Amino acid sequence: MNTSRFTLYFLLFFFVNTGLFAQKMLILEQTNKAQTKKYFIGDAITFRFDGPEKYWYTRRITDILPEGNSLLLDNYLVKVDEIGYIKRPPGGFSRLVGGAIFTFGASLTFAATMAVLFRDREQNYPLAYGIAAGSLVTGRIILRKRKLPLGDKYRLKAIEVRFN
Predict the structure, then answer these.
(1) pTM for this prediction
(2) Residue 31: exposure state from Cβ atoms within 10 A (0-12, 13-18, ≥19)
(3) Cβ distance 90 to 146 under 8 Å?
(4) 148: helix, strand or coil
(5) Region of residue 107 (left: phi > 0; alpha: psi -120 to 50; beta: else)
(6) β-strands 37-39, 44-49: how paired?
(7) How many separate helices (H) and strands (E) can be counted in the chain?
(8) Residue 1's pLDDT band (boundaries 50, 70, 90)?
(9) In terms of C-beta density within 10 A (0-12 exposed, 13-18 middle, 19 or more buried), how is residue 68 classed?
């Protein structure tokens, strides 16, 4: 590679990389746990406001304003303190186990249905369909979103991490 091309690439990467000075995020913290859940600009969150209203909103984070502890959710300004509940999908091991149990139930339903269609007389169909239904329901329960009340145990914070 000649030196003029190397110089051009070096200058291009140098000027492109200098634009990263800060990163904004919304953090969900749990008391007595070091692990946090981070939401970035562009992520969707499902939440409910404090008060008598029981409606759940699902909005995409447009911007995070840590100075005012506020969020722009689909260009609508929301104070972090006004959010009373947040829904989180299961993570890690729960998602793996729930998916495996749900897949087992769906596969057993398919296998039992094929046995009925091909008239396999040696099968116990009520037992197979019962186990399949139980597996489907159990897997769905494990995979449902958790409703977390914000307050003493959980809290949201809008922060900005600066890179100087």
Answers:
(1) 0.67
(2) exposed
(3) yes
(4) strand
(5) alpha
(6) unpaired
(7) 3, 9
(8) low
(9) exposed
Proportion of the chain above pLDDT 90, given as a percent: 34
Distance in angstroms (rounded) separating the CA atoms of residues 32 and 29: 9
d(CA 155, CA 157) in angstroms, rounded, equals: 7
Phi, psi of 16 (to 5 degrees): -70, -40
Model pLDDT, residue 35: 85
* pLDDT per residue as tens digits for the range 9-51: 776 676 665 555 568 888 988 888 888 889 999 899 999 998 8
CA atoms within 13 A on the CB side of 47: 23
